[in-house]
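Posting here for the record, re: flavin-adenine dinucleotide.
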Amino acid sequence: MAVTDPRVDARPVWDDGTWAPLPSLDGDVRADCCVIGLGGSGLTLIEELLRRGQSVVAVDATDVGAGAAGRNGGFLLAGTYDFYHDAVRRFGRGHAHAIYTATLEEIGRIAVATPEAVRLVGSKRIAADASEIDDCRAQFDAMRADGLPCEWYEGPEGSGLYFPSDGSFNPLQRCRQLARRVQHGGAILYGASPVIGIEGTRVITPGGSVQAPQLFVAVDGRLERLLPELAGRVRTARLQMLATAPLEPGAIPCPVYFREGFEYWQQLPDGRVALGGFRDRGGESEWTVDGTPSLTVQAHLERFLRRHLAIDAPITHRWAASAGYTSTGLPIVEEVRPNVWALGGYSGTGNVMGAIAARAIAAAAIDGEADRVTLFRTPTRAVG
Ligand SMILES: Cc1cc2nc3c(=O)[nH]c(=O)nc-3n(C[C@H](O)[C@H](O)[C@H](O)COP(=O)(O)OP(=O)(O)OC[C@H]3O[C@@H](n4cnc5c(N)ncnc54)[C@H](O)[C@@H]3O)c2cc1C
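Prediction output follows.
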């Protein structure tokens, strides 16, 4: 059952309400490249395409940052969905290290590109129980052995790890900044234009179509809806959050994730606390393309806020969004049909990975650097 409380804002806490909606597509247009999806990945991709001299038309079902990219937890975390030691086991040491290094570099790029939206304050992984403390130790040992930034943490939040190179950001603010920038650079962006068909590289929306020799589908959640051939490889889940009225700023110095990342929270510069999680406690019904909050998960979040975090401030926002999950833990970044490229399925970690995927796919599609997307392939022989 959905949550409906008129006193609570259904928009993400990141929305300052100042954005003027994009026009919708009306008629048939042409460009060198068409991008579907105006989240962080699609917008980074548009920047990369413009940089390569391509003309770009982009469409979104709703507007800039209307999906997970503008409705997420705002964590900028290095690495993959798997913790580093797990990634080493799964992908091999060299590959896991290459991905981790790429994400560290990308966090730096994001901070330089949109400094107003980003705070490089680090992040913490806090163990929920004794066995997770052991797992944190294994992660600590693996990261230190490979020279990656990680410190042991004991403090008010519990025991675990501190990652000094991570950060947090206002994801919607970043999307909107990127959108203004690419518009200024010549990209034509349309909102309220859901794609209802893809014929070759031609994109059909209710108001018109876009014909372009290269098509890029930059959609994380619901990717399998637009490209049904990906249905066995990516699955859409709903992730939910809430936010509170402001507390004394500085109570939570940096983003925290808990219980292997299922729960995550941070305090914003204005003192509000944003908390997400409990996807697994919602059961099978959280595997859905429905992006509205549910009573079950929101009740878990509220209980955790009151009991575990001991925060009694009123809840002002409750929201949800869709994210794509893959069984490999690596996103889909590839040409799925001739001249149709897909990027998505970040398994809840697309803020940094989505930007890397966008850069890789632009290099592969436009510059012919096919090897740039191999970072996202599971190596056939993972060696520890
Ligand atoms: C609640 C929540 C918390 C999260 N927290 C974090 C976090 O802290 N750190 C992290 O790294 N990741 C997090 N994630 C995951 C992360 O937000 C996503 O992986 C990332 O934002 C995906 O961005 P994107 O641009 O690839 O796709 P999306 O944001 O999914 O953008 C896709 C866009 O495509 C549009 N679209 C969809 N279907 C169509 C269609 N048919 N036609 C036209 N347009 C369409 C949508 O409107 C949307 O704007 C979280 C996700 C959620 C939901």
